Amino acid sequence: MTSTCPAVCEVWWAGVPDVAPAHLERLLSPPERARLDGLRRGRDRARFVVGVALTRLVAGARLGTAPDRVDIDRTCPDCPRPHGKPCLRGTGIGLSVSHSAGKVVLAVADVPQVGVDVERVALDRPIRAMAARVLARPEVAQLRRLGEDGHGFTRYWTRKEALLKATGDGLRVAMRALTVSAPDEPPRLLDWAGRPELTSRFALRDLDPGEGYAAALAVVGARDPVVVETDAGPLLAGRA
C-alpha cells in the first residue's frame, strides 16, 4: 500500500559567529578541513564550519550516527573537487545548504531532491542590470510593476536558486530559463524553458529568514510537504 503521508522538510536556521566554536570545527572530515584551510577570512571560515557542523548534527540524528561519522558525499558533477551539493547516498534523505552574510540554512527532507536558498536583500545592487541577466521577460515586467525594489528581485532570486538546487542543475542552467510567480504572489514555478514537465513536480515555499533577507525552499515530487522551520542555535551549542 502506498503511504499517503506528506513529505516532511525540516529547515534549520543558524547565525554566523565571528569565529566558529572549536567543538563544531572538530566535527569536520579531512576533506572538509582541507576546504576550510583554503578560506582566509574569519567570517567565511565560520560560515563554512557552521554549515558543515549543522549538516552533520542533523543528519547524524536522523541516521542514528555520530555526527563526525556521517558519510556526506559532495561529488561535483563538473570537476574532481568535493564541493558539490551534499548527499546522503542510499538513504532517501535530501539535503541542501545555503548561506548569506550572517545566515546559514539547512533543509533536510524525506525525499532526495530538495533545494534551499537564502540571500541578503539586494538594496545596494544595480537591480535593473541584474534583472536583465536573471529574470524572464514576464518577471522583468512584474518587477517594474512593484517599483524594481531589491526585496522583489531577491525574492525572485531565492525561488529560482532553490529550484535549481533541488534538481541538481545549479547555475549550469540560466536563471532566465525559469519563470516563477511574482514576489507578491504565492510561490510557484510557471515555466521552465525546454522542460515543461517540471512545472507540476515542484512544491515551492517562501521561508522566514528574518528581516533583511529572503529565502525559499523547493522540493521535487512532494506536492504539499510539511515544512518546519527551527532555530539551530541550541543544537549547535550542544543544548538540544
User: What percentage of amino acids are in beta strands?
Assistant: 15-25%
Largest sheet: 4 strands, mixed
Our measurement of the CA-to-CA distance between the termini, rounded to an integer number of angstroms, reads: 36 Å
Q: Low-confidence segments, ≥5 residues, pLDDT <50?
A: none
What is the alpha-carbon Rg in Å?
18 Å
Write down the secondary-structure element order. Answer: EHHHEEEHHHEEEEEH
Strand order of the largest sheet: 2-3-1-9
Instruction: Note the overall shape.
Output: globular
Structure annotation, total helices: 7
Structural class: alpha+beta
Q: What is the average of the pLDDT values? A: 92
Helix content: 25-40%
Number of strands: 9
Your description of this structure?
The chain has helices spanning 22-25, 30-37, 42-63, 127-134, 137-145, 150-167, 233-237, and strands at residues 8-15, 94-100, 103-109, 114-120, 178-180, 189-192, 202-206, 213-220, 226-231. It has 7 helices and 9 strands, in the order βαααβββαααβββββα. By secondary structure, it is an alpha+beta fold. It is globular and about 50 Å long. A hairpin with an 8-residue loop joins β5 (178-180) and β6 (189-192). The protein starts with 7 loop residues before the first strand and ends with a helix. A 4-stranded mixed β-sheet has the order 2-3-1-9. Helix content is 31%, strand content 23%. The longest helix is centred in the first third of the chain and has 22 residues, at 42-63.
